[in-house]
Hints:
The complex is a heterodimer.
Chain A: E1 9-12, E2 18-23, E3 35-40, E4 47-50, E5 64-69, E6 72-77, E7 86-93, E8 99-101, E9 105-109
Parallel strand pairs in A: 1-9
Antiparallel strand pairs in A: 2-6, 3-4, 3-7, 5-6, 7-8, 7-9
Chain B: E1 3-7, E2 10-12, E3 18-25, E4 33-39, E5 45-51, E6 57-59, E7 67-72, E8 77-82, E9 91-99, E10 103-107, E11 111-115
Amino acid sequence: xxxxxxxxxxxxxxxxxxxxxxxxxxxxxxxxxxxxxxxxxxxxxxxxxxxxxxxxxxxxxxxxxxxxxxxxxxxxxxxxxxxxxxxxxxxxxxxxxxxxxxxxxxxxxx
Amino acid sequence: xxxxxxxxxxxxxxxxxxxxxxxxxxxxxxxxxxxxxxxxxxxxxxxxxxxxxxxxxxxxxxxxxxxxxxxxxxxxxxxxxxxxxxxxxxxxxxxxxxxxxxxxxxxxxxxxxxxxx
Lengths: 110, 117
């Protein structure tokens, strides 16, 4: 049950686009479309931003999008805004009927 | 309104036990997948355990054999019994409602567990 691999940090200026990667194996990310993404502001509970690779829950801006290729999933945020500054985590279902999270990525809006 | 409220956290000595509760409202726990996810201070999220609607339970390797997830349908509450606690179990423990496709879509506010002598 190794954590999925995410970059520790990414940054971008307001209005720009950034992409966060999430790399796993064929036993998790690559084997299932049950990949989701979470946003967490300091001291707050995580919030679901993307589910099933590329679907957005109601209320999440369409600036947030997700995709997957092979064993790597990606979260793209376009038109960066100051309030997007937060930690982001990916998660995947695994072949062991368990779940795994990524190590997290700190997004800084410059 | 769909809501999860965790309780039961606190300070416990290494080797001790603690039981966390997650009271649900707005839906029934026995018809849903329910998970516990923890976050050590300054660290990332770590999935801990799940109880599926059919009653099957699964655990992260780091807690297998020490933690037990269960539910009480009459109280609409999910529990996490934590035994043989270690310093590395110190974390905020979140309860979450989930589905296979929708991920962890409802979260509680978390309860802090500190394991220290």
